[in-house]
């Protein structure tokens, strides 16, 4: 069993981008600038956004964080997005999800200028991704693809079972893995809450991608010997022994699944850091005017 070390791989990617940013600087060119919008005080969202902003500083990007109270009106939020759209210094915009119930998430995403949509959630970018055209790939699936690429994992002809069909992870992941590319060329089964024989399907999987947000959902009896296991879950479990009052666990029961797997991502330190590295790559491409990456 080999650990897929997201911390290590993301650091390598960030170091590489830092060099590219230094080159831009030396040539007097524009420094990438990411704007993040955070609405409300959800603890997990706060952590993710703080981590994104911190990573920008580490590699030499400029960043702007716009914070709003959870009571913000939809109109005020949309006005702010439009302001960022029109600001030529801003290259990438991300609105941390989920948003409060009174705000129409779809409308918010549709308002982001597709050329600044570094999350790759705008329907125009989703359409390009599905068509195999260069665009911004949603950061979590893109990060997973970068991880598979880094470890030179041969995915060709493998059966990948993706658990969860969210627009953020499961659906784009299923598309990327099935593409005629490397990594890619998998036979993909996309499973969800109405899938009847999930365990049997998982047992057939050479690659399992768990993205359902249920703590330790994937157990050893669901995983074939030698499978590659990608754990996208970041779940907070109450733990009185921790200062924060919680600990993080994935969607995979790591202790029992890891001995059966050939490769596995830990939580934390697996997919999470890769998501940030992928976001930074998308932002770089936005800044140099290359509309998305070639992946
Ligand atoms: N919430 C959970 N994952 C993501 C993500 O990748 N981007 C944004 N904007 N919000 C998220």
UniProtKB/TrEMBL annotation:
<feature type="domain" description="Tetrahydrofolate dehydrogenase/cyclohydrolase NAD(P)-binding">
    <location>
        <begin position="138"/>
        <end position="287"/>
    </location>
</feature>
<comment type="similarity">
    <text>Belongs to the tetrahydrofolate dehydrogenase/cyclohydrolase family.</text>
</comment>
<dbReference type="GO" id="GO:0004477">
    <property type="term" value="F:methenyltetrahydrofolate cyclohydrolase activity"/>
</dbReference>
<dbReference type="GO" id="GO:0000105">
    <property type="term" value="P:L-histidine biosynthetic process"/>
</dbReference>
<dbReference type="InterPro" id="IPR020631">
    <property type="entry name" value="THF_DH/CycHdrlase_NAD-bd_dom"/>
</dbReference>
<dbReference type="GO" id="GO:0035999">
    <property type="term" value="P:tetrahydrofolate interconversion"/>
</dbReference>
<dbReference type="InterPro" id="IPR020630">
    <property type="entry name" value="THF_DH/CycHdrlase_cat_dom"/>
</dbReference>
<dbReference type="GO" id="GO:0006164">
    <property type="term" value="P:purine nucleotide biosynthetic process"/>
</dbReference>
<protein>
    <recommendedName>
        <fullName>Bifunctional protein FolD</fullName>
        <ecNumber>1.5.1.5</ecNumber>
        <ecNumber>3.5.4.9</ecNumber>
    </recommendedName>
</protein>
<dbReference type="InterPro" id="IPR020867">
    <property type="entry name" value="THF_DH/CycHdrlase_CS"/>
</dbReference>
<comment type="pathway">
    <text>One-carbon metabolism; tetrahydrofolate interconversion.</text>
</comment>
<feature type="binding site">
    <location>
        <begin position="164"/>
        <end position="166"/>
    </location>
    <ligand>
        <name>NADP(+)</name>
    </ligand>
</feature>
<keyword id="KW-0658">Purine biosynthesis</keyword>
<dbReference type="GO" id="GO:0009086">
    <property type="term" value="P:methionine biosynthetic process"/>
</dbReference>
<keyword id="KW-0378">Hydrolase</keyword>
<dbReference type="GO" id="GO:0005829">
    <property type="term" value="C:cytosol"/>
</dbReference>
<feature type="domain" description="Tetrahydrofolate dehydrogenase/cyclohydrolase catalytic">
    <location>
        <begin position="4"/>
        <end position="119"/>
    </location>
</feature>
<comment type="subunit">
    <text>Homodimer.</text>
</comment>
<keyword id="KW-0028">Amino-acid biosynthesis</keyword>
<dbReference type="Pfam" id="PF00763">
    <property type="entry name" value="THF_DHG_CYH"/>
</dbReference>
<keyword id="KW-0521">NADP</keyword>
<keyword id="KW-0486">Methionine biosynthesis</keyword>
<comment type="function">
    <text>Catalyzes the oxidation of 5,10-methylenetetrahydrofolate to 5,10-methenyltetrahydrofolate and then the hydrolysis of 5,10-methenyltetrahydrofolate to 10-formyltetrahydrofolate.</text>
</comment>
<keyword id="KW-0368">Histidine biosynthesis</keyword>
<dbReference type="Pfam" id="PF02882">
    <property type="entry name" value="THF_DHG_CYH_C"/>
</dbReference>
<dbReference type="InterPro" id="IPR046346">
    <property type="entry name" value="Aminoacid_DH-like_N_sf"/>
</dbReference>
<dbReference type="InterPro" id="IPR000672">
    <property type="entry name" value="THF_DH/CycHdrlase"/>
</dbReference>
<keyword id="KW-0511">Multifunctional enzyme</keyword>
<keyword id="KW-0560">Oxidoreductase</keyword>
<keyword id="KW-0554">One-carbon metabolism</keyword>
<dbReference type="InterPro" id="IPR036291">
    <property type="entry name" value="NAD(P)-bd_dom_sf"/>
</dbReference>
<feature type="binding site">
    <location>
        <position position="234"/>
    </location>
    <ligand>
        <name>NADP(+)</name>
    </ligand>
</feature>
<dbReference type="GO" id="GO:0004488">
    <property type="term" value="F:methylenetetrahydrofolate dehydrogenase (NADP+) activity"/>
</dbReference>
